[in-house]
Write the structure tokens for this entry.
Amino acid sequence: MATPVQATKYNELGGRVDVWMLCAIVALIGLGIVMVASSSMSYAVMTGQGAFYYFNRHLIFLAIGLAMAAVALRTEIKQIEKYGYIFLLLCFLALLSVWIPGLGKSVNGARRWVHLGPLGFQAVEAVKLMFIVWLSSYLVRYRDQIPVSLKALLKPIGLACILVALLLIQPDFGSSALLLAITLCMVWLGGANQKHIIGPAILIGIAMGFIAWLEPYRVKRLTTFLDPWADQFDSGFQLVQAFIAIGRGGLTGVGLGGSVLKLDYLPEAHTDFIFSVFAEEFGFIGICVLVALFGILTWRAFRTGLGCLELNRPFAAYCAFGLGLWISIQATVSVGVNLGVLPTKGLTLPLISSGGSSLMMTCAAMGLLLRISYELDRARRQRGERTESTRVDASGFTHVPPARMSAAQQAARLGNRSRIEPTAGAPV
């Protein structure tokens, strides 16, 4: 006997993640694994830690990050939205925890690390994600006031400035500038009046410039960036070596594993300057592929955000915008530093560079972004079902329209009169 056509309930309709977005993320993660192995082995051997030390460490943090991404992928966005203020509180607690004796630790003169057992965690990486979530919830709650009220606009900017002050004490100038850039872009996307944004943006720019001028090492970075060849064996050494690595790559590169500059010539070859090693080994064509992957990821993030706005899902939309801004700005700065068009900032290349906390939180952010794309697709399918149905009963059930049924389903619908199924119209 043919199986009758069953009714479909709206909340049982599933969704699909954005395939383009997923492919870009998987490709970047794969390139990151390959490049960390290639760029870190010689350094690990020279430091006496074993050839696969940084590679194995990268895989461990990647596994943790993918687990966090899986949790985010299975969590309803509306559940995340409920805890906006908790995420903001956690931002402050995370940045203050680095000063707790026995918990916080100073590395290379910067107190940015929190030790959780054998693992070290950089607190600011979690702050980036949690602040984006809180700011998205704030933009939803005050979306009617932000376009007209300067006070509503200054609150998130003021809180971002307080977080930046805590970051500058550590110090972490690069993450501070990144957080401020994300905040200003998100409030603008949230509908803030451009006239209201220009004033705070100018003041923030002047303040950050003055703060940079107060520290001699930051001034030295700026002068080195302007002319690295003036002191190519001291302050300009790292940038000059990056130039040489990128130049050696040519059009097609020297081949995977063939980099010479990673052999104790280029400092931070597996972290901040991994792009230079990538350029040396894969050349200009490889650079174009890498930039295209980040471009696809950013494009799909913003397309997802626009789609959420169309379906009146503002929180999900602002989260997608914020995550897209985070990845695109950080990737742009990292590549710009390696190319010598921006001063050294100490920011990793997302999903590519070796880095525990950065990799984990970026994976978690990608899990959240994929969840947003899943819920967007599910909402579109639900709206499509409602559009094609003539009526919905009180329990929320609807039938698949006859035009969309297969021949077997239509035969079953017309031939099996002994069993009456819920219908979208009058009884059959």
Q: What stands out?
A: The beta strands are 8-9, 104-107, 110-116, 119-122, 397-398.
